[in-house]
Every structure is written in C-alpha cells, then in structure tokens.
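Reopening this ticket.

The earlier resolution said the output was attached, but the attachment link was broken on my side. Pasting everything inline this time so it's all in one place.
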Amino acid sequence: MSLGQHLLELRRRLVFAAIGLLIGMVVAFIITDPIIHWITEPIRIIAEKRGDDFSALNFGAVTSAFDLRMRIAFSIGIFLSAPIWLWQIWAFIMPGLTRKEIRYTVGFVAAAVPLFFLGCYVGLLIVPHVIELMWSFTPEGAVNFYAAAEYYDFVFKLMIVIGVSFILPVFLVALNIAGVISGRGILKGWRVAVLVATAFAALATPAADVVSMLMLAGILVVLFFAAAGLSMLFDRRKAKRAIDLLPPEPAS
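Inline output:
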C-alpha cells in the first residue's frame, strides 16, 4: 500500500473507532444513575454514621450535574467500546506483522486487558476505605460537601492508576520474550520490586489505611513473581529449543 492508501485506511479505522465510542457513550449515559449511586455509596455511609445530612455530593454550578454525567459517559464508553477500537487498532497494524509477532501480540492483549480490569476492580474495592478514612480526619463541627467533579476525578484516577500497575508484569514478560532481560534477571530484582510495590501502594492509598496498602502491595508482588516464573519457563523452553537445533556430534 502507498502512503496515501495507509492514511485512508487509518482514517477509516478511526471513523469506526469513533462510532464505537459514540455508541458506548450513549449506552453509558443511560446507565449513569446506577453508576453515580454506586460510586457515592461511601458518602451515604458517612452521612449515616454522622446521623445528619452534612455529607453529600455537591454540584456547585448549573451545568455540574450534566458535566458529571458526560464525563462518566465518556469514561465508561471507552471501556464498553474497547472491543471495537482495539480491533480497529489491531486490524490496522496486523498486515505488517509476522505470524510470530501476531501470536505474541494476541497473548499480550489477552493477558493485559483482564489484568487492567482486575486492577480497576481492586481500585473500586479500595475507594470506600480511602474515603471513609479521610472523612475520619474531619474536625468536629465541620461538614463534608464533596465537589462532584473532584470526587469523580479521585475515584476514576485511582482506578486507572491501579489498573495500569497491574499491567506492568505483562511488560516484564514481553521484555523477556524480546530477549531484553532473562527470567533470572527479573527474579534477582525481587527486593527492588517489593520495595517499589510497597511504595506505590503507600502512595495510592492513605498512610493510615494499612489494610488497603497491604492488599494492593501483596497483589502487585504476586504478579511480579508470576511474571518472573513465566519468564524463567520461557527461558527454559528457549534453551531446550536451542539444544535441539544443535547438529549431532559426528560418530567417532
């Protein structure tokens, strides 16, 4: 294909991806009520504990409620339309890949996508504990009115950060497959990995929420060791394949 044909193909793929995103946003906009009810559950728990109505989600502008729904629709729409736009990306780059590269790419996506959503789910589990813990530092007589946009940004960003952190072990395996680092090399860095996982968990969760920190750090450490073990298995297969390809020794 010429450069012009590549650009036309790219435009066609982008149009399909945009249509998929638009459909996902429409569906997500319809279900924003249960989503908002779900992510604001910690606020209702706080209000119940206080025994008053001075803990609530606050919409400070005329368009704030609509803006929040649009932001939720866009974020959830990306997730809902992921099969469509991922396929468009894949269909665009696939003709230039070898059969071996296609197999590795499929394996990478098949491992990364579930891990990302698992990380987002773990983030959702952590969010209520974080909010309730932060509420406990509110001075006596003060109120908790959470700005809707800031509250949603906090929940969404925490989910994304933890989701991305769950994918990092997949990149380690990809580097091993590419021959950049061996499985033993990955395993030798386990002390650094544990330290980094603990530091990341401490930054992603409040300092006083030890349970959430340990849960997140523990999951990241397990994923690291799983990546190291899988990489060592690949190294063993590579070594065995290399031995099988050696020419037989001449008979004496």
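Reporter confirms the inline version is readable. The chain has a mean pLDDT of 80. The chain is about 80% helix and 5% strand.
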